[in-house]
Amino acid sequence: MTFVAPCAPDTTAGRTGARSQAALTAVRTAPTILDGIRRADALVTAAREEPEAALSVLVQEIRRGEDQLAVLAAVHALAAVPGARPDTLLTALLDDARPWVREHTVWSLVGRPPVVRAVPVLAHLVAGGGFPGMLAQRTLQAWASAAGDPVSDALDHALAGTSEPGARARLTETVGLVPGSGATGLLRALAGDPAEDHAVRGAALEALVERHHEDPEGVPGLVDLAAECARSGGALAPVARLARADLAAGPAASPPAGTGRTVLQAFLHAEIDRDLTFSGRGDNGGIATLLAQLGDALAAHRTQHGTGVVRVVTVSRGSHDEARAALPRLAGPGHVFGVVPFQGAPVPLADAWPRRVAAERGLRRALWAAGPVDVVHLRMADVGSLAAAAVAAEQGIPRVLTMAPDPHALVAAREAAGTLTRAGFGAADAVEHLWFRVRLLADLAAGAEHLVLFPRPDLARDARVLLGLDPDAPGRCTVVPEGIDLGSVDRAAAQAGAGTGRELEELDAVLTGLPAERRGLPLLVTVGRLHRVKGTADLVEAWAGDERLRARCNLLVVGGNLAHPSVDEREQLARIDAAVPRAQAAARGLLLAGHRPHGTVAVWLAAVRRGRPGLAAARGAYVCASVKEEFGVALVEALAGGLPVVAPAAGGPATFVQEGVTGVLVDTRDPAALSRGAARALDLAAGPGAEDAAAAAYATVRERFSIEGMAQALTAVYGRVAAPVTDRSPTP
Q1: Which of 92, 229, 241, 376 is at 20 to 30 A from 651, Cα to Cα?
Q2: What is the pTM of this model?
Q3: Within 13 Å of residue 497, how many CA atoms lie on the same side as its CB?
Q4: Does residue 473 sit in the same domain as residue 514?
């Protein structure tokens, strides 16, 4: 794909299959799993250019099955071979006993001309949902323009064969991707049927509204249908209310020329508001904080300097009523917040792939209401970026991608540790979709006009080894450190110094759970989502298992929805409860505070340094136990607030933590190293050089990691990317 140059055709080898065999051998002998995934591109190219000779080589490898990485490479190469025989083989692989082979076969078919005999199988997978259902839906969508009737018939047949509401809703959503009056008629019937489940009717209605935007004359009577759905009440009513608002609204007017650029940034796994009310809950982590503060800084930078970015549209997830309320605000000036709605409860980031179509529709709605957007900034290889990239491409909006090595660093680390091998790669991939995410990031990079990289101790090496990217390519990449709002750090320090305020009263209420004998101890604090990648349970286990550490400090955990935990939060809480039973936690020095608004957390971090009279001693420390961290908003905020920090030795923290002075870098996967690091950080906090170290840390953050500096650097990037766009008026 993106970073592997195809080999030149070799017609002699093509007659014997030698080139395909050589490419397959290169995959098998690749020094790392990541290299093997990249080398699969050459195998695809060889199969395409020597189709007859490649066929037997690929089939033999798929049947052998010993090297699961090579098997998957062969599946993708088989999909590049034209003709009826590969169609038959690929259709058979949809029923393979190995789930990871089935999954990659569905994915590989997306770039192939329609295989009619495979359509019913794909429709069945759509009904089943999950990641395979999303892949099947993408493939059917790609085939629908050339094979609309077979696709529509298969979906109609699948609908007739199931009564389960979730399956019917997924099939209905997919019907909405099929062009033609037949699909429109089926959608109208589903939306208007009072006997249908509300999720099914809602999916049909949302598809009809999108068709109306494409062809206002193609869906007559839609306003009345939406009104009828709104009167139905229940879960359908908010969907219908948003549909009515969407139908009533026209596109936002274009701003006058020369008024500055508009940037859209999306993170669809969080609920982001200006006050960061939900910080630390579910997937509302550091990136949510970053986007809220960055949007404000970008807009403020434009106000002060008169050029650059005039508007920032930050889009996150929410309810249909929240999306409806946000629509009128999206055309406003400055930093505005939009909402992409999803039916059903929030799901973890890793399980959100089936929401691709809803994400695309929500983003189109936001763009319709916001007016012309000059740049879309993508982050992460997730379903939100997959959707945003597709919508930006269809509307001709340039893209900027912040390219972090995720999941690349995770794959490399697990391979080095021996927990991820070529022989077992397929099984792991079926759960974590590692290959898809690696290739998605490559596709996002290929479609982006510019790439933004994080600082790393050895950036050039990591970019080449992990990402297969040359960071020195002229005009292609810019290194932009992320930043924090130092104003909030300063305000928090002032409030903690004054010793009064609602935030401190809330902290005191948490600390009063400590028994008298533990109230003279400093606090070890960690802030963030309750997720295994953040290592919260690892930290609790390390603290609880180290008697000397436990005797010298209490542990304050800030983050997570304790009342209604998500799946990821429940997993972490179960491990925490096993280490320190909840009923005994405060008595033993463990304080679970749950998620708090960002402003509250900032004051608490300042109080950890200063202490709380009669409740907690001064000179606490901060621990980031993340498996991986490129930046860490809370980590840098703690550093700026004068707390010695414990941080992962791998990734970005090594670029800003001064070992043994402002913090300690450790292997966070090692409990003993984690507890030793925490003890060392407490030593630094109590040492004679603590104040000088705090001042140095603040200076480092101010000079290199302020949100204003980040906004200034990105404004220049956006200017280069959007410069060719001179006419933003709607196409007549």
Answers
A1: 376
A2: 0.89
A3: 7
A4: no
